[in-house]
Amino acid sequence: MKIATYNVNGVNGRLPVLLRWLAESQPDVVCLQELKAPEEKFPEQAILDAGYNAIWHGQKSWNGVAILARNAELQEVRRALPGDEEDLHSRYIEAIVNGILVACLYLPNGNPAPGPKLDYKMKWFERLTIHAAELMEFGVPVVMAGDYNVMPTEIDVYKPERWVDDALFRPEVRAAFKTLVDQGWTDALRKLHPNEVIYTFWDYFRNAFGRNAGLRIDHFLLSPHLDKRLLAAGVDRHVRGWEKSSDHAPTWIELADE
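Structure for Exodeoxyribonuclease III, as requested:
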């Protein structure tokens, strides 16, 4: 079973890229972030024509998350992160696919920091950590995939000394990610590639992709059930080089059947 996560940076504007990648890679499950489209503008028919069922939580111009499943049913569980009824950002959606609980998330960026946006990010992280602990207690296979907007360690960022004050790399943000992982989650890419320089995002500016000046901010966290089934993990880096592509590249894992 192949599961992917992809911040598409606008699902309608990047639809040709998304469909091309789906046809090439054929993942079984896909978590999408930054749809940047209201509910009624999600390209459901094009996704269906590509062989995927979908659930999504849209928002005009900003945010937005979706889960796609190839030739499989999706049982939606929730479409908001618990803990704050006043938070209307479309950043979280959860479904059961083929016996696995899939959580798709788009964690806040937090910049400029310090300030209200970093405060929101840290509160969102706290809510995610509380909910993740509850998911762990369910005793079912869980994967939490998405754009976490965190570089966990120095190997995950090009020239880390330039990022020390950024909300994606500040000590309190990295500590929050570590607290989450320490509940018993496995960082899938790092388990299989512990010392390799792997990036999932390259800015559009200053030829960042050409220079490989990237960040690893798209992550898979696996519950112990899935940790044992992890076979492979990687990044479809070449997709970032396609015309009119997102500034993220699709990231994926492969799991053995039970």
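The chain has a mean pLDDT of 97.
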